[in-house]
Hints:
The protein is globular and about 60 Å long. It is an alpha/beta fold and 336 residues long. Strand 8, helix 3 and strand 9 (176-181) form a beta-alpha-beta unit. Helix 5 packs parallel to helix 6 (226-236). It contains 9 helices and 15 strands. Strands 3, 4, 5, 6, 7, 14 and 15 form a 7-stranded mixed sheet that branches. A 6-stranded parallel sheet has the order 10-9-8-11-12-13, sandwiched between helices. The protein has 2 domains: 2-115 and 299-333, Quinone Oxidoreductase, Chain A, domain 1; 126-274, Rossmann fold, CATH 3.40.50.
Amino acid sequence: MRAIVYDTGGDASVLQLVDRPVPEPGPGEVLVRLAVAGVNPTDWKSRRQGPAVGDWQIPGQDGAGVVEAVGAGVDAALTGERVWVWEAAWQRQWGTAAEYTVVPARQAVPLGDASFELGAALGIPFLTAHRCLTAGEFVPDALHAGALADHVVLVQGGAGAVGNAAIQLARWADATVVATVSSPEKARLAAAAGADHVVNYREQDVVAEVRAVAPEGVHTIVEVSAARNAEADVALLRPGGAVCVYADDGGDEVRVPIRRSMVPNARWQFVLVYTEPSAAKARAVSDVSAAVAQGAVRVGEAAGLPLHLHPLTATADAHRAVESGAVGKVLVTTGE
């Protein structure tokens, strides 16, 4: 099979296209013939550090394709199932930037009739967004239609992949969603994703605009840049609200206003999808699958998430695109 491999850390030039034997699924595993792989910021960050397991690594956590074979202890009926894959390369060498990958069976989730492009875009962004929307004290542990019917959610950075996922999942759960963006084009994308209100933080006063929508404050803030937004976040939380921080855009340290966070019993929740509690992750996988089955989540320009497709041979370009901040979702087509 064709696969992208790196055996040392560095920039995208360390990625090599090689031929490797198709791996055999072990006990509890499935072999997936991949059609599309997703590219996420953690892919290039991990690549720069070098292989974490063994002396080589196929990058890529997310993907979608068809189950080709199953290992011992796995129901043979899964063979031929269209699936989406999550965390393929987490503490494993077999990522999704290849024609085949092997993963534990629970990490290959039925996709139904949804597109492989959607399936490859689900993993890291949607599981992260789910955690952000369910980690607060006064929000439900699970999402479904109506789960957030009386909630207001603020998505800081509504045009990014996680921001887009948070908007779509929150709207599916019937929340009122406010998104912040930095340009008119990104405002258009956030609105296409389903945001009820969009604020251009370069031109508008975020606190004033959000308070006009939610005079009592917001329940949850999905935060991409806590270093920049901490003051505004605290000013916008309602009592018991949560700021859920999933990235360090704008700085890797945040100064939290202590007394002003104490008064409303605010929660600052930090989110890394790979290490979140296993029960929460299992709920996220189940809920995201339900949203897909109900047609509640989409990808593409009309969903506020433009797709940027690269062939497997141009995986290095795909990494460079994500590293340089491409707006939308970068995907690698892994089949012929």
